[in-house]
Amino acid sequence: DVFETGILSRGGVTALINRVVVESGSLASGINTGRLIIGAPSGGNFTAGAATTNTGGTLTLSGAQTAITLAPSGRYEIVNNNFGGSANTIRMYGASGTHRAFEFDGTVFVPISTGMLVDTPKHIAVHVNHLFLSFEGSSQYSAPGNPYSFTIITGAGEIAAGDTVTGYLSLVGSNLTSSLAIFTTNKSFILYGRSADDWNLVTFAYESGGFEYTMQNIGQGYVFDALGIKQIASTDAFGNFDNAQITKNIRPFINARITKSVGSCIARLSNQYRLFFNDRYALHITFDNEQIIGVMPVQYAHDLTCMSSFESNSGEEFILAGGTNGYVYRMERGTSFDGEEIVAYINLAFSFQRNPRLKKRYRKAVYEISGGNYAEVQAAYELSYGSSETEQGVTSTINTPFGSVFWDAFTWDSFYWDGRTLLPAEQDLTGTAENISLIIRSNSDYFAPFTVNSAIIHYSTRRQLR
User: What is the pTM (predicted TM-score) of this model?
Assistant: First the structure.
């Protein structure tokens, strides 16, 4: 009869019980051990001995209460889960590498004790109703349905990886249950099964692991290692999973940043996996029906060290990132990098209009650009592989006076009847060459996002190259 919100009493000392943490046994049996998370005591400090609750409970205290303290520094990794099953028992679980794992519901903070001599887990996951915590080369898992209990007799246990664990990722293993990918510095595993009764740890890749904080699930699993970003996809082949490198075409960019990754997140509305590095660069990979449709390097204006994305109760997506300057930034918000200009540019491949040995006289490029607000685009071009023997083009400024208007969604006398969100923009071209590369650039702290959908090139054919 020891319940949350009850009053604990011993002698003249009382305190509100915020959480009952059963670590072995059960409350129903009356034979158990654990801890009570209490509010500030009234009447002094508790001492060892018999105590009671106002709900008829009896228990024995091992000593005085101790304050909950957190070690500084550390990199927090957080998962949300509902071990209780009711609508009001979803809670946050975290690990930092500097102190004990914990549970937090927004009010009550509960340190989780695993019994490890150095109880400072670094990585965390929830898998088939078990709480997983990493301690260097060991993965400790809790009793099923009880994130507080890490004793063998309750169903908890340990899985040794033989190398430093760098992270976890839940995957769809079959139509019966999910699987857990366990990544280490130099190797990766897939854990099948539902409990200690049938765990089956299978080596997934012998010489390919994953860097810390780069594991994400966006339809399929993705992780960054020394070879690049790899996809961990479900397959009908033996083993249920297959992996493939998806950044082979940008190998120089990857090689320059093998040891520089700091974290990752997903962007739900953009259907993107985003990987961040410590040199202000990031890599945005966009998917459509689990197929890659684009890989784009991005340079931010601030040094980012941690990031997270989530969907609010109202359905709004939040992508947050912490900087080395102590600020937290929200992505996909506003038209600048916290007041600094956003520079965007792209150099398209040299196009030869289906005939690489035929000279053309280039006359005009017609861009189809879409957006919702005014923007300016600088358009330039290079001819004949940018050769110094060919006169190169000049930069033109293209204005895009977008202004979307929807009936019943505007204020009278404060809109334009000819508002539009899609328009062609023309650029004059001069010069004769066998191919052309279009260059598009934007630099502003107030232009809203816009999209260049296509470009039509007008030209006249000339002679064959000799």
Answer: 0.87
360 CA to centre of own chain? 47
Mean pLDDT over residues 256-264, rounded? 96
Residue 8 and residue 30: Cα distance in Å, rounded?
17
Per-residue pLDDT of 114-147, as tens digits, reads 999 999 999 999 999 999 999 999 999 999 999 9
DSSP character at residue 207:
S
Q: What is the rounded distance in angstroms from the CA atom of residue 357 to the CA atom of residue 2?
A: 86
CA distance 7 to 36: 11
Q: What secondary structure letter does DSSP report for 251?
A: H
For 297-309, the pLDDT digits (tens) are 999 999 999 999 9
Res 176 pLDDT > 90: no
Dihedral of the alpha carbons of 193, 20, 102, 165, in degrees to the nearest 10: -30
Q: How confident is the model at residue 415 (pLDDT cuts 50, 70, 90)?
A: very low
Classify strands 436-444 and 220-225 as parallel, antiparallel or unpaired.
unpaired
Per-residue tokens: 217: 């699930």
Q: What distance separates the 2 farthest-apart alpha carbons in the chain?
A: 104
**Cα of 364 vs its chain's centroid, Å:** 42
DSSP annotation of 413 reads T
Q: Are 211 and 184 in contact (CB under 8 A)?
A: no
CA 56 to CA 54: how far, in whole Å? 6
Element (H, E) at 103: strand 101-104
Residue 158, sorted as left (phi over 0), alpha (psi -120 to 50) or beta, turns out to be: beta
